[in-house]
Amino acid sequence: RCVQETAIRVEDPSENINPGEIAVPSTYxxxxxxxxxEVTREWVENLLEYMKDQKxxxxxxxxxxxxxxxxxxxxxxxxxxxxxxEGQEITVCGDIHGQYYDPVxxxxxxxxxxxxxxxxxxxxxxxxxxxx
Length: 132
Hints:
Blueprint: H1 2-8, H2 41-51, H3 59-75, E1 88-94, H4 101-105, H5 107-110, E2 115-118, E3 122-128
């Protein structure tokens, strides 16, 4: 296994990039995410609304998100058992293959929930039944 892991290991170029050093043009009107800023529900909703018009998040903020996601994912197990509390359900929406607008169309399932986890291949949502 170690030989195989060594053979497929690649250097992560994002480790050498400091998002704080990336300039954002004054013409950029989209959501901003500073290094010490918390990603809130309101920030995510603003991002989704901004991107619905085919607008792009500036690369500085994409890098901030990617570095945070990488740190979180490195700490997680790749397969977990989930206990669903009584009166709640899990909705799994998957097979999106990098298509951004597919998971955006699922936001009516995932954003209004109390607990929500989304990953690039599968979106999982734990929510109370009959919330709507």
